[in-house]
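Let's do one together. I've listed all components of the complex below, 228 residues spread over four lines.
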Amino acid sequence: MRNYVKIFKALSDSNRLRILKMLEDCPMCVCEIRAVLNLANSTVSKHLSLLREAGFILDEKNGKWVDYKLNDKTDEPQVKKLMKLMTEWLNDEARIKADKRKLELVDRNKICNI
Amino acid sequence: MRNYVKIFKALSDSNRLRILKMLEDCPMCVCEIRAVLNLANSTVSKHLSLLREAGFILDEKNGKWVDYKLNDKTDEPQVKKLMKLMTEWLNDEARIKADKRKLELVDRNKICNI
DNA sequence: ATATCATTTCGTTATTTGACGAAATATAAA
DNA sequence: TTTATATTTCGTCAAATAACGAAATGATAT
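Okay, and this is what the predicted structure of the assembly comes out as:
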């Protein structure tokens, strides 16, 4: 039960939904996500840790960055099912489409250097 | 987007999940739910209004009671899909099974009269 | 019409959440 | 090894949430 609540809580914030939808396109580091969402770095980091604890994403060290990506191969059936649904949902939302466009222009070598 | 958040928020509370699982078995009034969950009447009423606003349940006047029931025929695809999943999920949880057993013993003519 | 009773609304309180900036950590580059 | 920089953790604050009891509402039954 507790785990179900954790999973649904992870999905019940618009910034976290935006993050998940962007990660469908490609892995991203904290400062790339920050550049799109216009949030503080620490805020993005917190959102990512909630998504990770719920099982939706994985992190991977990559040079000086930490890349976050969807946990596509999860063996948790609930998470797997919800991630599948999420790929079908929200695709027509203006906000989501705008995020994805903005994401294409983001170059981690330029936008970092806080 | 706002609607997605509302839907997931509705599912991200254990008392609301317990309510939804009980409603799979039969419609219930506020004081029946209250008797199973051991919450104040007003608290149950609030949970029900959140579930209703998210589209998961409907209410129907029935004599002096208001019966709440699952909104099985909803035309909102997200709600429909999630309700389908919920019927498959949580069935083995001890808490849910206990709720359903307790529910069978509840007689609204006896347990109301607060 | 009045009394009864299920439900909702209101006001309050404690807890959780989402945000921030600053400090701590860890890795890469010089 | 020092410096730069990406990320996380910590402390704080404002807003949202979940709980309660009391009061208000609405419908039934006497």
